[in-house]
Each structure stands twice: as structure tokens, then as C-alpha cells.
Amino acid sequence: MTRTGAYGERLGEFLRLEQAPPTLVTRSLRSTEIAVTETRNDNPVPGLSGSFAAEDAYLVGLKLRDYPECEIWEQGRHLKKTDVHAGTTYIYDLKADPRYVIDKPLHSLHFYVPRSALDGLADQSGARRIDTLDCSLVGHDDAIVRHIGASLRQALRRPDEANQIFIDHMMMGLTAHVAQAYGGFRHKAETIRGALAPWQLARACDKLEADLGGKLPLQAIAAELGLSVSHFSRAFRASTGLPPYRWLLHHRVRTAKSLMSVRGLSLSDVAISAGFANQSHFTRVFSAITGVSPGAWRRDALGTASREG
């Protein structure tokens, strides 16, 4: 059976990496897998890369390290040699059997975007499906891909701290951007306006509050409201001012504040009870949102309560 899906272990084999590279996956569009994989090899054995089974899908590469004189192949033939610069974006059509010569250290993010995800995005938005992505704009600076890549690199480094709602949100954003920037995709105007109905917002918040760890995918919440993931995400933000993953982080902080008002609970216990992966994760998020560390906030809160008592 032919294996498809150019991410994770298969991407590692393509680049002849010794270990499977870190990967994050979302299934928010028609349950189709969209993935990001970070690949790095500081001391590669020189040779031509492997080959992927042809499929109707794309790899969007964000280069994290310069790769001078990169020799690129397509459909079994040498195509060109070019300097690849850190921070630039490339798009590879997996129907064309893209390959290149590995003869120097490499470091990249690779976003796997199959045709079914692009079609699902269009269908959810009630828009026309795109024909193809333009792969000719190679080695250019795409600020949005760089921003999404930087955000997801943190999640790739600390997968236990990356809630699924955040991964879903960022990967949906990447897919929509790629479709718009390189495929001419346009949302229908009527799908962009409007907030959630009060009952929808209440139910969505209930679902998020019941899953502080953020393991529930966006697709499950949207489906319960009878909405597409893209419509739900936009409407939730219109209703609350925050995307779902940010709203969840703020709710975790509110929960942590309530727990810290109880004497005797350690910060480690508070962190786990409020849905954080560990105390370090709790401290980083709490400090970023409130401007003070959990310990300082607790000392001030309990000190104020003692004085008022």
C-alpha cells in the first residue's frame, strides 16, 4: 500500500534523518490531516533526498537556516541550483516529485497541506474551490508564514504545553493564508460578519471550561453548534474579542486565581488543576497575561485578604 502524507516520520525518511522529527497535526477540515514538522540535521551524509509517493498535496517550507547552492530536482530531472536563505518560504507540489541534494546542514519547518484541506476550507466558507497553488514564488519573504512558524516552533519544542485548540487555530490560519496568497481563494463576504448567538456562545464557553487542558479539538466544538470550524472561530472572536485558544488561556488564569485564594495549595497543584502542563508553563502564561508572577500575585492577594479580615 502506498503511503501518503509528507510529514512526521515519512518526512524524516525523505530527508534521511536518524529520528522521527517533531510534528503537530490538526484534523479540523473534513477530518483531513494538516501537519507541521520541524526538520534539522547538522551533519548530514551527502546524497540525494528520498522521494514521496505522488499525491495531490503541497509542502510549504519555511527555511530556518541558509542553504547555499541548493540543487533542486523534479520528476527525476535536475531543475536548478539556487541559494536558499533563512526566513524564506517555498512551496512544493507533491505531484511533481520534488527532491534535492542534501550536502550541508539543514533546518526547516514543513507544512503539509493536502488538496482535501483546501477543498474543505472552500466548502466550509461557501466559496469557489481553488485550482492549484502557485509554486513559482519561491524563496520569498512571507511574514505570515514566518509568524505562524515562530508560534508553532514553541509548541513543537514543548508539545505537552500545546493545547489542541491552539494547534487547530494556527494550522487553520496557515491553510487559509496559503489558499489566499497562492491560490486566489476568497471568503464570501457574508461568512465573515456576525457573532455567535447567545446560546451558541454559552455552549462554546461551557465546552472550553469543561476541558481546561485544551484536548478537545475545535472541530468538535463547532460541530456541536452546527457550524464549520472557520465560521465558529471567526464568530467566537467577534463575540469575545479573543480566538478560542486565547480565551481558554485567560480562563485558565482566572481559574488559577480562584485556586490561589485557597491557602495550602501549592503552585504546582494550582497549575495542574487549572489545566497547565506544569508549574513552569503556568508561570510563563500567567506572567504574560497579568504582568506579575503567580507567586507575587498570590502574596499580594492573600496579604490584602488578611488586612481586610
Account of the protein in words:
- By secondary structure, the protein is an alpha+beta fold.
- It has twelve helices and nine strands.
- The chain has helices spanning 8-14, 115-125, 143-157, 164-183, 189-192, 198-209, 218-224, 229-240, 244-260, 267-273, 279-290, 294-308, and strands at 23-29, 32-41, 47-48, 57-63, 67-74, 77-84, 89-93, 99-102, 106-114.
- The longest helix is centred in the middle third of the chain and has 20 residues, at 164-183.
Number of domains: 3
Rounded to an integer in angstroms, the radius of gyration calculated over CA atoms is 22 Å
Average pLDDT, to the nearest integer? 89
Q: Helix tally?
A: 12
Task: Write a short abstract of this structure.
With 309 residues, this protein is an alpha+beta fold.
Core attributes:
single chain; 309 residues; alpha+beta; Jelly Rolls; Arc Repressor Mutant, subunit A; five-stranded antiparallel sheet; four-stranded antiparallel sheet; 9 strands; 19% strand; globular
